[in-house]
Amino acid sequence: ENFISIEKRVDSETNRAFAWQFGSEGDEFKFEGQNILAKEIIQKMTLKVLEYDKQQTPFELLGVEADDEKGFVLNTDLQLGDEQLQVGMKGIIDRIEQKDGIVRIVDYKTGQDAKDFADVPSLFDRENKSRNKAVFQTFFYSLLYLESPIGNDHAPIQASLFNIRELFKSNFTPLIQNKINRSIVDIMDIRPFLKEFKSELDEMLKEMFDREIPFSQTEDTNKCRYCPYAGICNKRP
Questions:
Q1: Quick one: CA dihedral 224, 230, 234, 237, positive or negative?
Q2: Phi/psi of residue 193, nearest 5 degrees
Q3: Could you tell me the pTM of the whole model?
Q4: How many Cβ atoms from other residues are within 10 Å of residue 60's Cβ?
């Protein structure tokens, strides 16, 4: 019955979102031109997400992005020589849910982000052009969840990437995957990876905050294409 109610609201909620985005008064928005097509695509994707969710019932929503605009916080202590620092990090998790004793960290993507990765160090390799930033994000979100008041110290954690376009494939799976040799394996619990991830994260932060290590410009100018600071350093592709 929850889904019946939600599906009936898809049209009105889409209208309300467009009205908010474009600054229209009230919840009404006059659809013209390409916005008509955009609305149809958004509604089609939304209904597909609901269809997938309906197949997964019953499950419990532990949190969604709109619940906590301040986000989840992770404070980590670093030792830099004789100096001890506490570095604060924050992230806003799209969705956290629990089913059959398993916690799922869900991140929605509208692009075609890959779900597989070779190993944890590869997620931190800045010279690797195919470094999987989306998987990095789900690992980081999992640490944020564990440090939060709702964090469960014992439940298995599944990291899920919902590439909306892939939802229309018959073999869709949201689970991130480990590429081992030539095989790709769904990760049913990412906890075994988190200790190494946290260690790599701490090392990266130590490098960032070490006054003896200067910041340097990237040699890959493609990274500058969408950088908001490209005008400052004059390094454009």
A1: positive
A2: -90, -15
A3: 0.85
A4: 9
